């Protein structure tokens, strides 16, 4: 049963909410889940998920471990297709096109929807070749000069160009964990996706590197639509404009981050963000 909490502010949760209220007229729809369900064999992992993701905003997905956050994120760029037991119903649309339709070109989709994982996963190649990888396999750079320009632009967007510009031919594996993660972000940005999915992108990093990733997310949403999964309530509050709370495979509520963290509509949301469970 839903218990309203709209008439009182949450007293226990204190964090900095950087996002500001957004006028509905300023919002443009990017992604939409419509009655989306997912099963692993006989076990249903996601139930009737319906939510909107707005263009050039950051949307955080929060919830306890095993609630379906990463499963939902991986569905958006069809990574769950690699699991034979997975089946789905409903729709997830990008600019009105159903991403789950059989006729969708998955390779083309993954150019439009990039992904950054929890653990930094640079290739055993140079820093330059890591970032240029997607450009090469997709034939997106007309020549070496164009490729170099796009690699530099991606590294600048990932706020790591000044740190690596003099060692682009060095192995990416020689970098620190935080630097590796920013190179992985640059690799995703090099192909100029519309959407950037981030699955716990800072959970394996130290506090200084985490702060750099959070600042980066806050800047990148001006250019890209970002969906981030995080267990960190403070991080969700700091980097996102909208927050969705999942519990046991169901969407409890979704709305502007400032409201979710101060006046949620559902008692379960309040209990989670104030640490009563999860």
What does the secondary structure layout of this molecule look like, with pairings?
Layout: E1 29-40, E2 43-54, E3 58-62, H1 69-76, E4 86-94, E5 97-98, H2 106-112, E6 113-116, H3 127-137, H4 144-157, H5 161-164, H6 177-189, E7 195-199, H7 207-220, E8 225-229, H8 233-239, E9 242-247, E10 250-256, H9 257-260, H10 267-273
Parallel strand pairs: 3-8, 3-9, 6-7, 7-8
Antiparallel strand pairs: 1-2, 1-4, 4-5, 9-10
Helix pairs in contact: 3-4, 3-6, 4-6, 6-7
Describe the structure.
There is one protein chain. The protein has helices spanning 69-76, 106-112, 127-137, 144-157, 161-164, 177-189, 207-220, 233-239, 257-260, 267-273, and strands at residues 29-40, 43-54, 58-62, 86-94, 97-98, 113-116, 195-199, 225-229, 242-247, 250-256. The chain has 278 residues and is an alpha/beta fold. It has a 6-stranded mixed beta sheet, sandwiched between helices. Strands 2-1-4-5 form a 4-stranded antiparallel beta sheet, with helices on one face. A hairpin with a 2-residue loop joins strand 9 (242-247) and strand 10 (250-256).
């Amino acid at each position: 049963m839903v218990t309203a909490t709209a008439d009182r502010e949450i007293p226990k949760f204190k964090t900095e909410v950087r996002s500001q209220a957004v006028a509905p007229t300023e919002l443009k729809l990017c992604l939409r889940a419509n009655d989306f369900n997912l099963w692993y064999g006989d076990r249903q992992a996601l139930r009737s998920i319906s939510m909107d993701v707005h263009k050039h905003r950051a949307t955080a997905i929060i919830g306890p471990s095993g609630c379906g956050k990463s499963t939902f994120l991986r569905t958006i760029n069809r990574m769950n297709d690699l699991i034979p037991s997975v089946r789905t119903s409903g729709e997830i649309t990008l600019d009105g096109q159903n991403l789950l339709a059989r006729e969708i070109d998955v390779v083309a989709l993954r150019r439009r929807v990039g992904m950054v994982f929890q653990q930094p996963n640079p290739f055993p190649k140079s820093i330059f070749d890591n970032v240029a990888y997607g450009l090469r396999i997709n034939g997106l750079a007309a020549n070496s000069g164009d490729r170099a320009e796009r690699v530099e632009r991606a590294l600048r967007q990932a706020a790591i160009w000044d740190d690596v510009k003099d060692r682009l031919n060095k192995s990416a594996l020689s970098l620190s964990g935080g630097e590796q993660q920013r190179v992985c972000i640059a690799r995703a940005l090099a192909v100029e996706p519309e959407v950037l999915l981030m699955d716990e992108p800072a959970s394996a990093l130290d506090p200084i590197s985490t702060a750099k990733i959070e600042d980066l997310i806050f800047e990148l949403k001006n250019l890209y639509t970002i969906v981030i999964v995080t267990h960190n309530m403070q991080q969700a509050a700091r980097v996102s404009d909208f927050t969705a709370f999942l519990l046991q495979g169901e969407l409890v509520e979704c709305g502007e981050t400032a409201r979710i963290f101060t006046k949620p509509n559902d008692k379960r949301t309040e209990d989670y963000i104030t640490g009563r469970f999860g």
